[in-house]
Design goal:
By secondary structure, this protein is mainly beta. The protein has one helix spanning 74-79, and strands spanning 5-7, 14-16, 42-48, 54-60.
């Protein structure tokens, strides 16, 4: 009986008759669409520039072309108040965006 209790030798205590193992069996699942998705080597961005022209940029996958402060200048990092919107344009407050590590 699974999960049942078996009485010990008359001492009044009960012990489980099934004790699950700590090691779970390894199960492999295979099927169409379950393989790991391929990561692109490079991302291609197209966006309007300030003049309205299309600006194209290629960036290595993983943010290799982005600086640690997200493209903000040292002046922007120093002069932005904590509760002001972040100058990166994310819509978050500076203290919750780029000001988190500052």
């Amino acid at each position: 009986m699974f999960g049942g209790l078996a009485s010990s030798e008359g001492d009044g205590t009960q012990e489980p008759d099934f004790v699950p193992s700590d090691a779970a069996p390894h199960v492999e699942v295979a099927g169409v669409g379950l393989e790991r998705p391929r990561q692109p080597a490079q991302l291609h961005y197209v966006a309007p520039s300030e003049t309205g022209e299309a600006e194209e940029r290629d960036v290595p996958f993983g943010g290799g072309g982005v600086s640690s402060n997200g493209g903000l200048t040292a002046e922007q990092m120093a002069s932005t108040p904590k509760n002001a919107p972040c100058p990166c344009g994310s819509g978050k407050k500076f203290k919750m965006c780029h000001g988190k590590d500052a």
